[in-house]
Amino acid sequence: MLKENHVVHYLLLVLGIFVISVLFIFFRYNRPAEILLSALLSIYYIIWGIIHHKIEGRLTQLISLEYILMGSFVFLLLFTALTL
């Protein structure tokens, strides 16, 4: 079962993704804005993951690298889809 602080952490993650998704829909005909929002989403995910693990005391270089690589990969996928 999730700890109480985990619920808050994951709510912040979902809230951030939701807000950026709404903005993504709002700017659906503006490619530069969508690319910027994609970058913000990836940066938000990376920062959230690193802070989450730091608070738990489980942050390692490997975990940081994992969040950086996954965030970058998602950005590259979105960037590629938006520029085609």
Quick structural gist:
This protein is mainly alpha-helical and 84 residues long.
Q: Can you offer a commentary on this structure?
A:
By secondary structure, the protein is an all-alpha fold. It has one domain (4-83). 86% of the residues lie in helices and 0% in strands. The protein has 3 helices and no strands. The chain has helices spanning 4-26, 31-56, 61-83. Helix 2 (31-56) runs antiparallel to helix 3. It is flat and about 40 Å long. It starts with a helix and ends with a helix. The relative contact order is 0.13. The mean pLDDT is 95.
Task: Describe this protein with a few key phrases.
single chain; 84 residues; mainly alpha; 86% helix
Mean pLDDT: 95
Which percent range describes the beta-strand content? under 5%
Please tally the helical runs, counting DSSP H or I stretches of 4 or more residues.
3
Cα-atom Rg, whole angstroms? 14 Å
Give the N-terminus to C-terminus distance in angstroms: 43 Å
Coarse morphology: flat
Total strand segments: 0
Helices and strands, in order, run as HHH
Sheet having the most strands: none
Task: Catalogue the unreliable spans.
Answer: none
When the domains are counted, the total is 1
Helix content: over 70%
Which structural class best describes the helix and strand composition? mainly alpha
Topology readout:
Elements: H1 4-26, H2 31-56, H3 61-83
